[in-house]
Amino acid sequence: MNxxxxxxxxxxxxxxxxxxxxxxxxxxxxxxxxxxxxDGKQALNYLFDSMSSATKLPNLTILDLNLxxxxxxxxxxxxxxxxxLKDLPVIIxxxxxxxxxxxxxxxxxxxxxxxxPLNNEKLEIILNTLPKVELIKNKSLDNLxxxxxxxxx
Length: 153
Description:
- The protein is an alpha/beta fold and 153 residues long.
- The protein contains 5 helices and 7 strands; from the N terminus they run E-H-E-H-E-H-E-H-E-H-E-E.
- It is 39% helix and 20% strand.
- The longest helix is centred in the C-terminal third of the chain and has 16 residues, at 120-135.
- Residues 133-153 have low confidence and may be disordered.
């Protein structure tokens, strides 16, 4: 896979929302492949299976919050508490405009919070900065400013 191309995991239970998100992602030059799962349990299985197999982890996860079985916050907490997954870039794509949800997601280290539909222009800017994330994966995220992808001094 080209180093400037990204594998994306899309976690979305609504088939119409998933189709719209995939259509948006297909238009972006940085996306090479999109895997789609429909609930939080499948997302965690996908990620944990990717860690223990030859399958490459995604470069980016786009996560809905309102998911069946295991909700988006539980998925995000599991990602951040796992040593191998904790630096995985996650974007929230949800219908929730609730400021409590936004603050909780930001506290859990997301790189962006989109209220549906997906904003391609803003996502393209984020994708342009993701190579910087690859360079810092082995460093602590405690002092990372996700907006600029640079460490705060």
